[in-house]
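Hi,

I'm pasting everything inline rather than attaching a file, because the server keeps stripping attachments. The sequence lines come first, and each chain or strand is labelled.
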Amino acid sequence: NAGVMQNPRHLVRRRGQEARLRCSPMKGHSHVYWYRQLPEEGLKFMVYLQKENIIDESGMPKERFSAEFPKEGPSILRIQQVVRGDSAAYFCASSGQVSGANVLTFGAGSRLTVL
Amino acid sequence: AQSVSQHNHHVILSEAASLELGCNYSYGGTVNLFWYVQYPGQHLQLLLKYFSGDPLVKGIKGFEAEFIKSKFSFNLRKPSVQWSDTAEYFCGGSSNTGKLIFGQGTTLQVKP
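And the predicted assembly:
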């Protein structure tokens, strides 16, 4: 079982460019979560998706950020027109259950650096 | 609003010292509680979880946590820490919606 796979592990972008982060959930998992980790701020929930549906996006910034989890392929977190403040580690997690009594399995994270 | 908070942001201990990391939650209704650990350069791993039943839960690597409903707390404990326990520890909570939110994290540094 390959676990949750995230790529790229490291991404460098200049201000104004786009960043795309990909997440393949564990085999059999149909729920994906994205978190952002900033220094001294812990892990902040961004968005929770099911296949082709956004369940909860209450943690997503209103502009420039979007997420999708298509029927086929990985979940993608997209950041348009990146700014220095977007530099962070972005973690994806997956689970296989709908209820709250589920355990999230995390990927290794993608570290975005904006120059 | 649902929230999880961790009191200690940075803890430094010597090997063999006892550890207790605080975690408080604010949830209406059913709550599921978790502790995750992130070793340097690695991804988050589940240490232990509480869904229901015995409020004292045991996890991996000698860790345990106690759910005290009256205090809205779920503190993490270990009787004797090792240098290899140096890591960042996250307390998390979820309700039946499935969304897991975390506290701010506690960085534990164990000196050999």
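DSSP finds no helices and eleven strands in chain A.

If the labels don't parse on your end, tell me and I'll reformat.
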